[in-house]
Design a protein that fits this description.
The chain folds into two domains: about 45-180, no CATH class; about 185-430, Jelly Rolls (Sandwich), CATH 2.60.120. The protein has six helices and 25 strands. It has helices at about 5-10, 20, 65-70, 110-115, 155-165, 230-235, and strands spanning about 45-50, 55-60, 75-85, 90-95, 100-105, 120-125, 135-140, 150, 165-175, 180, 195-200, 205, 210-215, 220-230, 245-250, 260-270, 275-280, 285-290, 295-300, 310-315, 320-335, 350, 355-360, 385-390, 425-430.
């Protein structure tokens, strides 16, 4: 592992850079009418998205607006319901610029009261079904600033929210048909130029630890995985279990620890001690997308470029913390022509620092297909990786504070007696060049 790659995979505690980490998600799109394109039966698909920072659900008939919000970090959850393309019962859309919250109502009096209170009226968002075939249940969270209302055709979702303390506000409007979850996107069909995927299971002890998939290229690094850190809930109360799906996006102009040129994203709560399939994918428009169980949960822009190095990394936060992580069936996809297809060798598991150890516990297979999953003769398709150990980074830094995974690059690794290393173990492989 090169010094540049090692240096750029360092991280800064997300709590210390919360302001820099926050993605600008409070998008206030302009007024939109339902799109003219609709099914032959006169219906319109209503897309449902979720803002992981504010907790707001957003609903739109516009595919352009849907994709704009996805690019800004919203999660696409699929089709919420089918609305009539036209009816005598409009549903009005409003926006509160102070709270960063949208509201939807079929009640003109409620609309007017909100406008008088300072809300912006954004026009007719869609229409309600006058035959009242599919109810949209409305709930209210009295403790929320943004995302205080939820609308769903799912009575089970409604009942779960009511049990959690939301108020049942009856039926907001009606659709003509039900919805469907966002379609699965597999590593084969997600359209990416390059990706790395595996079934991750994170365990450990102490103040913090994480396991991640990593891609680096063009002087930039993006990583995605599961992180536990004991203080997350103080800055992000929506994560009381302190375990999240984390993205670290280190741009090419970031040369030292600090928020400049670096992006940290907590996408959603993650499990500890459970298997979950995770994938990091890169697209030729310089977008990275992040998948859990074949569902995209976030995306962001990068400054990466091919060819890539792919890695599985595990880390611990402080001296004495432990990690016991596995990433099984790790597969790599790369390239769009015979000159760039696949990987060039087996996995390298020799980058172990400060007491942590990454090993290949099961070799993979050779993939001889003429395409992006080619291993070019090496048994590197579908390997199993384990990262274990107790952080051994004794002593204090120049500031008198104990070394951490944010400051380890200035510490002396006890096994090599050298500096410039992450507090982690890394297993990596390179794209064919």
């Amino acid at each position: 592992m090169s010094h540049v790659f090692a240096r750029q995979t360092s991280r800064i505690t997300a709590l210390a850079v919360a302001a820099a980490a926050t993605v600008a998600l409070a998008v206030a799109p302009g007024a939109v009418a339902p799109e003219t394109a609709s099914a032959a039966d006169g219906t319109v698909s209503m897309y449902r998205l979720y803002n992981p920072n504010s907790g707001e659900h957003f609903y739109t008939a516009s595919t352009q607006e849907r994709e704009t919000l996805r690019d800004a970090g919203w999660n696409y959850e699929g089709i919420g319901w089918q609305a009539p393309s036209q009816s005598d019962a409009p549903v009005y859309r409003l926006y509160n610029k102070n709270a960063g919250d949208h509201h939807y109502t079929a009640n003109a009096a409620e609309r007017d009261n909100l406008v008088r209170s300072g809300w912006n009226y954004e026009g007719i968002g869609w229409y309600s079904d006058t035959q009242k075939r599919v109810p949209l249940y409305r709930q209210y969270n009295p403790h929320a600033v943004a995302g205080s209302h939820n609308y769903t055709t799912n009575a089970g979702e409604r009942d779960n929210l009511i049990r959690a303390g939301w108020h049942d506000e009856g039926i907001g409007w009606y659709g003509v048909g039900g919805g469907s979850a966002a379609p699965a996107e597999t590593q084969t069909n997600d359209g990416a130029y390059a990706s790395v995927e595996g079934v991750m299971n994170l365990r450990g002890s102490g103040s913090g630890y994480h396991a991640k998939l990593v891609m680096s290229g063009g002087g930039s690094v993006v990583s995605f995985g599961i992180q536990y850190e004991q203080d997350i809930h103080y800055a992000y109360p929506q994560y009381p279990g302190n375990t999240v799906f984390l993205v670290e996006n280190v741009m090419s102009h970031a040369t030292q620890a600090g928020p400049a040129g670096k992006q940290y994203m907590y996408l959603k709560a993650a499990p500890l001690g459970q298997d979950v399939k995770v994938r990091l994918s890169w697209y030729k428009d310089n977008t990275a997308r992040f998948f859990v169980n074949d569902q995209e949960i976030g995306r962001t822009k990068t400054t990466m470029g091919a060819p890539f190095i792919f890695a599985v990394e595990g880390s611990a936060a402080r001296n004495g913390d432990t990690i016991n992580a596995t990433v099984r069936n790790v597969t790599v996809k790369a390239g769009d022509s015979a000159a760039s297809y696949g990987t060039i060798s087996g996995w390298n598991d020799g980058n172990d620092y400060f007491g942590l150890d990454g090993t290949i516990t099961k070799q993979g297979t050779v993939n001889d297909e003429d395409g992006p999953f080619s291993t070019n003769g090496a048994p590197s398709y579908g390997v199993d990786v384990a990262i274990n150990g107790r952080a051994n980074i004794p002593g204090n830094g120049p500031d008198g504070k104990p070394w951490t995974w944010d400051t380890s690059f200035s510490a002396v690794d006890p096994s090599t007696n050298t500096t410039g290393h992450p507090l982690s173990a890394v297993v990596n492989i390179a794209q064919k060049r």
